[in-house]
Every structure is written in C-alpha cells, then in structure tokens.
Design a protein that fits this description.
- By secondary structure, the protein is mainly alpha-helical.
- It has two domains: about 90 residues, Arc Repressor Mutant, subunit A, CATH 1.10.10; about 30 residues, no CATH class.
- It is built from nine helices and three strands.
- A hairpin with a 2-residue loop joins strand 2 and strand 3.
- Helix 1 packs antiparallel against helix 2.
- The chain is globular.
C-alpha cells in the first residue's frame, strides 16, 4: 500500500493527497536538478535568483523571495555579478535602492538550464498521451488559480 493510500484511508482529503503526490514527484527530481545546476557552477540560491529576475528587482525583494537576510543576497549577487550574469543598478525612484538586472548572458544561461530542467522524468514521460493531457489541463487550471491569487 502506498503512502498516499495510507493517508487517504486515515482521512486525509483528496486535495492533500494530490499535493503530497506532486511533492513526491518534484522532490524525487532534486538530485537531477542539483546535478544540472552544479554543471553550470551554480548553487540553489543562484538558480532561484536567476529565475526570479524577469524584470529588475530590488535586492530586498529577492531576499524575501529567498527567505534570507539582505547580507546573503549581497553574497549571492556578488557571485552572479562576478560571472556577468547580473548587474546592480540604482532604482530611478530611489538612489538608495539597488536593482538586480539579468544580463543577456544571464538570460541565455537561465534559458539553457531551463530547457534541460524541463525534460520530463520517466514517471511523467511514460504516461499515456491521454493521461499527460489530463495532467496538463489540471495543472494548468491550478497554476491559473495560483496566479489569480497572487494578483
């Protein structure tokens, strides 16, 4: 009997069971994820920073997203800046605020890594086309709800 089945029998609701299964799938890929970002000389906070910098972002905001101190963001930024992946600029509205900006090199690296990380693990790739469509549709609706809640 699977862990999810045991939880369901114990009275856990279906939404919690689904969330647990999604986490199981995602966390099972952590070694692969770590290996890929390490190939590029990155550590998790570097990758998370690169992912969140679609638009220029204050360093303090990045600290909140990483759930760390501003001093840690300074260290992360220093490493990314040394590699030419980000730059720091002054915010036009406040000279005291430093914005992080992804460089073209940073965008290319983020895209390259993103393509590799997007390769589906066998547990997903080996599902039937019908199951993959259903999974896609359900996850798309869940992601849309998440985005709506963020607005």
């Amino acid at each position: 009997m699977t862990t999810a089945t045991k939880r369901r029998r114990a009275g856990t609701d279906l939404a919690s069971e689904n969330w647990t299964l999604l986490q199981e799938l995602a966390f099972s890929q952590r070694p692969r994820w770590m290996a890929i970002i390490r190939e590029y000389g990155l550590i998790p906070p570097h990758w998370i920073a690169l992912q969140t910098l679609e638009e220029p972002k204050p360093m303090g905001e990045l600290a909140k997203q990483l759930a760390c101190d501003n001093s840690n963001v300074t260290w992360i930024t220093d490493r990314l800046e040394e590699r030419g992946l980000v730059t720091r600029t002054q915010a036009p509205h406040d000279r005291r605020v430093r914005l992080l900006v992804l460089t073209p090199k940073g965008r290319r690296l983020r895209e390259e890594i993103g393509v590799r990380l997007a390769e589906a693990p066998a547990a997903i790739a080996e599902l039937s086309a019908k199951d993959q469509r259903v999974l896609h549709d359900v996850l798309t609706r869940a992601a849309e709800r998440l985005r709506d809640q963020a607005d």
